[in-house]
Amino acid sequence: MKNILIGLVFSILWASASVATKFGVQSASPLILANVRFFIAGILLLGFSYIFSKDEAYKLPNRKEFMQLGLFGFLNTTLYLGLYVMAMKFTAAGIGSLAVSINPLMIVLLSAWWLSRRPRIGEWIGIILGMLGVGIATYPLLDGATTKIEGILILLVSMIAVSAASVYYATIEWKLPNLLINGWQVTLGGIFLLPFTLIFGDFSVTTWDFRFWGSVLWLSLAVSIAGLICWFYLLRIDPVRASLWLFLCPLFGFFFAWRLMDEQVTIYTVAGTLFVIVGLYFGQKAKISSGVAIKK
Question: Of 12, 105, 231, 255, which cross-links 130 as Cys (Cβ 3.0–4.6 Å)?
Answer without folding.
Answer: 105
